[in-house]
Amino acid sequence: MSRLAKRQKNIIGLSLGIAAGIGAAVTWRQRRRARLTSPLQSADGERVALITGASSGIGAAYARALARAGYVLILVARREARLQALAEELTQVYHVPVEVLVADLADPAGISNVEARIVQIGALAFLVNNAGFGVPGSFVQNEIASHEAMIRVYVNAAVRLTRAALPVMLAQRHGAIVNVASFVAFFPVTGSVTYSATKAYLRSFTEGLHQELDGTGVRVQALCPGFTRTEFQKTGKIDEQGIPNFLWMPAESVVAQSLRDLDNGRVISVPGLGYRLLALLAGLIPRDLLYSVGQWTRRYRATFASPSSARSS
Ligand SMILES: NC(=O)c1ccc[n+]([C@@H]2O[C@H](COP(=O)([O-])OP(=O)(O)OC[C@H]3O[C@@H](n4cnc5c(N)ncnc54)[C@H](OP(=O)(O)O)[C@@H]3O)[C@@H](O)[C@H]2O)c1
């Protein structure tokens, strides 16, 4: 190698090193500032958190974590008995007031009831748009009603509840909204076409809001978990055989990571190192390769799995 080429190589190496160093320092400073102004750290007055889909799984884990942090809770879902049992547990263990609000978010009237309750709350500090369900099968196998119900629960409800919550939070200059998306928000999934599309919507919606809310004191996050041990697969009759154990995370760990990321000002939260690497990869690999993997997976399922099986996360 000539002396000039060697020199050029050294300059490139040095420039990359300096750029990486500056990047790391800026990120460190941003995270430090984010922690100092975290909505989770504020202890001023009563703080109310409303969680949809709180009767089980990830929603119930948020309810426990936020009760532990001293939030007054409003728990939303359809199964009243489950919500009541959780409310009693949280009141007993954490001594916080807990309200139960029964609503079907696939029904516009149910969404309106929750919206109306949000507008009444003067101190809403935390909203978790988490309610959801999965449906196995290809797009055309499923009735249009099931696609529409999914869009209402994941998109309409999240948009309407966020729109209702923001004026209160902006007036307080304080608040947090978590939209529970999914790991599949990073790539379209065969057998869960509408599901992955709604999750991609939530991710994009949250990133757009994050930019609009800069400097307002209100923080947003799209939580993108992979396979999480909840009632999701059982309720949706989704085949979970063949998913290796190491891919599953407990709901409590998913929620703990979401809250840590919120503290650190991370807009996209992907719990689990392996999932974080895969999410990074999903943005880098060519789309045609991504489609080929999806098509191969669909053929594999059609050949080896039961006809109704599908996998969502
Ligand atoms: N588990 C996973 O592998 C996984 C992975 C990535 C993302 N997620 C997302 O995590 C969120 C929570 O799911 P989960 O895993 O915790 O499942 P889960 O245990 O089945 O909980 C789903 C919750 O949503 C509520 N819900 C469902 N349909 C509803 C409706 N029409 N109206 C109101 N509430 C409704 C359910 O309550 P009721 O039945 O009482 O109404 C329940 O509380 C979902 O958005 C899901 O897409 C899950």
Annotation, overall tally of beta strands: 9
Binned strand content: 5-15%
What gyration radius follows from the Cα positions, in whole Å? Answer: 21 Å
Q: What is the distance, rounded to the nearest whole angstrom, between the alpha carbons of the first and last residues?
A: 51 Å
What is the H/E string? HEHEHEHEHEHEEHEHEHH
Shape: globular
Oligomer class = single chain
Please identify, by name, the CATH architecture.
3-Layer(aba) Sandwich
Number of domains: 1
Strand order of the largest sheet: 3-2-1-4-5-6-9
Q: Mind describing the biggest β-sheet?
A: 7 strands, parallel
> Please, what is the average pLDDT?
91
Which fold name is given in CATH as the topology? Answer: Rossmann fold
Question: Which spans of ≥5 residues are poorly predicted at pLDDT below 50?
Answer: none
Structural class by SSE content: alpha/beta
Summarize the structure.
With 313 residues, this protein is α/β, with parallel strands linked by helices. It contains ten helices and nine strands. The chain has one domain (45-304): 3-Layer(aba) Sandwich (Rossmann fold).
Task: Give structural notes.
With 313 residues, the protein is of the alpha/beta class. The protein has a single domain, classed as NAD(P)-binding Rossmann-like Domain (Rossmann fold, 3-Layer(aba) Sandwich). The strands form 2 sheets. Strands 3-2-1-4-5-6-9 form a 7-stranded parallel β-sheet, with helices on both faces. It has a two-stranded parallel ribbon with strand order 7-8. The longest helix is centred in the first third of the chain and has 34 residues. The N and C termini lie far apart (51 Å). The mean pLDDT is 91. Bound molecules: NADP nicotinamide-adenine-dinucleotide phosphate.
